[in-house]
């Protein structure tokens, strides 16, 4: 990420830099050790200079920092060296281009260390400076969850189960960051590696003994988890998403698979419900525990989900090991995907070394898998059943629509959704077709258009919906409605108390980006307001699932 973009992000990120990511105390690392780590020389007079922090963003630099001046898409981080030095940076790391730029500007008042690819050094330097996972231990047990869908809920489930076991867990994810204090809102699935290592040091400082983290393909591609060693890495599934970044499913898979290597994780739990999971389990070069969450499919796995029965809105089920051992698990959240999420969380915690009997006792005594995950199938009302979910790709939309279908005769599913601009365009007609197949009323609206034309995005989604309806002789009603708040009101206007409304795609997000402008828009707020204005009762039950 360029300094320019990083600055724009951190300028609006609560908790960044001076406002909460860093530990209170950091022992200075001599610049000579940093230079040795990079394999470069440093002037004798500067060898003992102490470094107590690291930043990619000149606006977030604190006194004692190492400033990483990286090349970006439009600006080079070297452009911002004067600001970084003024803020207290004691040294700069940059590439040849940055060094030439600084040389033209004149002699710098701090040492400049030059490496060919400074971006790849950020993670290990952050780990060194913050001592986030020192060799002498004392740091949180790390759980990393990757996959297309289910990452967020699985990390919340892991943390909830760890709490039930009497541990003090932290969390780094899409929605928020928990480090033993007040929640910190998150704008990235995984923060930059400088913040990740600072957070791990902060968790260690505050006495947390475990942490779970969402690990997206972007985080791996952009080196955001470099230098982090996960005790247990977990895999949920792989379906079409982020092909704008990766180009193909094979490349998307290869990026995810990097997490399951000896340099990044010690153990793995891999869900083998799809071909990608089975391929990953075979390719990983670390110990792997396999998990099958679909009882109807004959898949070889160490642990299998079996005997799923309804339990209120949710399910209870067994996890059966190949050697005959059984764990009894329950979740109060509906949908087969929540069974899968709960199963993965259970086996990941087990793989971390927790005693099986102790784990079962916590599952029996507590309700760890009925836990609030903001914007993940959040129940807003019961009559009509009204749900907000983050489903923003074909597989997630399909799962969400199937999960909310009521068995009640005459009940309809009304869905409001769109597609994100400047993202994988290939999934737009596919999502339209899925909605036409699985919903009774399809209202196509806007997600985050970004810099694309919103009408053109809607047209691609609508094309898929109309084509599926015609080719498959479907009876679904298809409507185009915008802006999004008007589409939500339309859904409520046409709903009866027996129907189900699903507002999909944005989940917990509270801003809609249109042509570079952030417009205040929270699907949950709009849905509650529309329901209230029509005289429907709004639920106070904040249990959420995804």
TrEMBL record:
Residues 375-507 form the Mur ligase C-terminal domain. Residues 7-16 have a biased composition (Polar residues). One of its GO terms (biological process) is peptidoglycan biosynthetic process. Its EC number is 6.3.2.-. One of its GO terms (cellular component) is cytoplasm. ATP binds at residues 147-153. Keywords: ATP-binding, Cell cycle, Cell division, Cell shape, Cell wall biogenesis/degradation, Cytoplasm, Ligase, Magnesium, Nucleotide-binding, Peptidoglycan synthesis. The keyword Iron does not apply. The keyword Kinase does not apply. Pathway: Cell wall biogenesis; peptidoglycan biosynthesis. Its main location: cytoplasm. It is found in: Cytoplasm. Belongs to the MurCDEF family. MurE subfamily. Carboxylation is probably crucial for Mg(2+) binding and, consequently, for the gamma-phosphate positioning of ATP. It comes from Paenarthrobacter aurescens (Arthrobacter aurescens). The modification N6-carboxylysine is found at residue 256. This is UDP-N-acetylmuramyl-tripeptide synthetase. PANTHER family: MUR LIGASE FAMILY MEMBER (PTHR23135), UDP-N-ACETYLMURAMOYL-L-ALANYL-D-GLUTAMATE--2,6-DIAMINOPIMELATE LIGASE MURE HOMOLOG, CHLOROPLASTIC (PTHR23135:SF4).
